[in-house]
Amino acid sequence: xxxxxxxxxxxxxxxxxxxxxxxxxxxxxxxxxxxxxxxxxxxxxxxxxxxxxxxxxxxxxxxxxxxxxxxxxxxxxxxxxxxxxxxxxxxxxxxxxxxxxxxxxxxxxxxxxxxxxxxxxxxxxxxxxxxxxxxxxxxxxxxxxxxxxxxxxxxxxxxxxxxxxxxxxxxxxxxxxxxxxxxxxxxxxxxxxxxxxxxxxxxxxxxxxxxxxxxxxxxxxxxxxxxxxxxx
Length: 232
What we know:
Blueprint: E1 11-14, E2 19-22, H1 31-45, E3 51-54, H2 59-69, E4 75-79, H3 94-107, E5 112-115, H4 123-142, E6 147-149, H5 152-158, E7 163-167, H6 173-182, E8 186-188, H7 191-196, H8 200-214, H9 220-223, H10 226-231
Helix pairs in contact: 2-3, 3-4, 6-8
């Protein structure tokens, strides 16, 4: 269903820090509109991978979006990370997520990504949220999910057989390389794209190559966990 999202203002820029805070609430024109746009774009993509991100307030809504968009995308991301979307937090409960993923696995044919909520570092809160995140990670591993968010801690918990997409704070080749060295398989940008423009993608790649050459690092694929590469 189309959704207006949260009322404005819902995006705040802290330009001195090149930071963004958003409380969008997932505004959307609906899954049918999105499907139509993907179909129109297909001839122009020339094989470029497309990951469609879906969310919802109830399992049936997410399942319907997944079913409709999976044939039009390379992979699907299920986003349960938002702290400010009414109803979404039910999927941050391990049992609820387990049930949802079991249903998705019955119908899915392509890779599935789960975007998890971050945990805080404050000791009084962080340990509880970290336990919650790791319980969700356990569910994702059990259900065969192929990628999740956050890096070093989750890599340490899950070993090398799981793809991890690092998202947040990637502004340079150094940032991207640090995420990969921490255990990420891929990196994702948004805020840096907004502040630095589309040229940031090429600059990150060039900076990574320069750093790797200077530090005599091997090919990028060799920095990514070997067992993961063998299993992919």
